Fold these 2 entries.
Entry 1:
Amino acid sequence: MLGGIMNKKKLMRSGVALALSISMAGGITLSTPAVAEASTGNIIGAIVGGIAASAEMNKEIKYYNTTEEGRQALNNQLREKYGVNDDYALNNQLDRIFTNLTAAIGSQDATIYDRPYLYFINNENSFNAFCTLGHNMSVNTGLYNYLNNEDEIAVVLAHEMGHGQKDHPARGMKRSLGPAILASATGTVLGAIAANIWSGQGLTKPMEWEADNLAFDYISHSPYNPGATAAVWQRVIDMDGNNSANVVSIMSGAADHPSNASRRDNYAKKLTEMSGGKVTVNNGTVYINKKEFVTPAPANGMTSAERAYFVMGNLAAAYKNGHAAADAYADGSTVMLGAQPIITAVEGDRSAADMADQLNKIK
């Protein structure tokens, strides 16, 4: 009998995990179980049943979110459902990014080591990445069709890790599934979860902003260019416009998530603050102390505007780390400010020597 109970629990948990993974696809809709005709007795019974179902739901969420057995079980089902891309170069890069970001987050939040992130590249062709229960993360293969800069990819993952560190997936799931559980109290927890195909795991706009702001902190403590935080959103705008509801779903999740421009501008403001108020960007031109420094030429698949934010990030880091006290100089085609590289001149740019001279005049 005990073995039968254990098998039943494993079967139920397997079904719950599968339902959770199915919900991420966002393309499947299941009908809600029929509710019996209302009466006082039925309503009271539904309330009691709903409370029990909600408690069971919370128990299952906790299992997949906090236990190693549950985390691994969900990871295995995600891999089975979405497939695994074993490309050596991409996985080597992903390992490097997670190593760098884990160290950056760990310098501020040691709890990351309690549940190390489980991650893989899946075979989905859309432009996205996600973090779900148990610090399970996955990057869509399609993301690499749009991003080839490691710093920008790191920003995407830092945002998702921000969700993970604040337990947004579990909190959002309870928020989005709770009403469905109560509304279908005559069914099972598994049935209610399967019937409720939630979008973005119940993430809210405040959660999105919190993850964005955490991503900036994480990137700023990593080897990556902090300007990539604004640059990646400029890239999204260049590809897809400012409509947050468009096809590009990078770092999205909430139905009311912020606009692409507002996210870019939030990061640009943080970069200006990092520089002590000295560096700004306007329409693809970088300004220092309100004086024009450079309008980078389009290069390496980036627009002038996207590239400007990388220059802004380098300058902000230089001011933050004290390199701006030194003279700027040209090291081959690269403008240096102390030990900090600022911009590497390419075809269409002014020479590195000219840019270094201008930087010394206005910094």
Note: Strands lie at 118-122, 129-132, 136-140, 279-282, 285-288, 291-294, 328-331, 334-337, 340-344.
Entry 2:
Amino acid sequence: MTTSPEQVLDFWFEFGSNYSYLTLMRIEEAARGAGVRVHWKPFLLGPIFKELGWKEAPFVQQKEKGAYAWRDVERRAARYGLAFRRPSEFPRSSVLGSRIALLAAGEPWVGEFCRRITARNYVQDQEIASPEAALAALDGLVADPAAIIRAAGEDAAKAALRAQTEEARRLGIFGAPTFFAGGEMFWGDDRLEDALEAAQGRLPQPVRGCAADGAAGASACVSRRSAAPGPPCAARPGRPCRCSGWRRRSCPAGCAPGRPAQGACRSGSAGRGRAGYSPAS
């Protein structure tokens, strides 16, 4: 008996990132519904921005872009049914929370911890850098929260987060959230669903374009949608075939565009139509 390969998604996030907030609040449920396992990858954007030559976060440095981004986050939060409050301090330091999330990356409580930390920032407008903030987020998740915080303060945890951030830079990450799945990189909260599809092996294939049809003197679509066989066109070569429904925007196999919203069966191809096409009168 063979088993299918595990479907996984690498999720790179930063607690200080406003768009990461949107994804952190919904990724665990979305991934569970898609049958995809999440690899939690906390990192720090500050060192990456510095290497890119940015003194501040782009949303701070470019005021117009920042104003748009805050309104966009508000709209997206409303779409998802998430509470949101623009924090009075941005971006907030997230070093301690990131170290803890990295320590807990393989633990079943990591998702809940991450949601509590990011909600503290973007819903409650409270700081997330102190041990007290971490203790509150860990409450009820582990038997000894203080031990987790002590571990996050050790040199090994500090080095691990530095290495994780360096790995993000090596991978070409320039913002958060970022996802890797199916050999592809996806950036932004609005690419979560695309990344989940890639993890499932459902990455869309490129459209191959159009080829000229000498018989009809027009172009015939040869995209993936038109490649599948369908019911017979039921028209003699050269006789028009009329489109119906949404399929009128794509040309069926064996037909080439004629008049608007119509097509003509190619010579020798009258038996290769698509659903939604019928002989015109």
Note: DSSP finds twelve helices and ten strands in the chain.
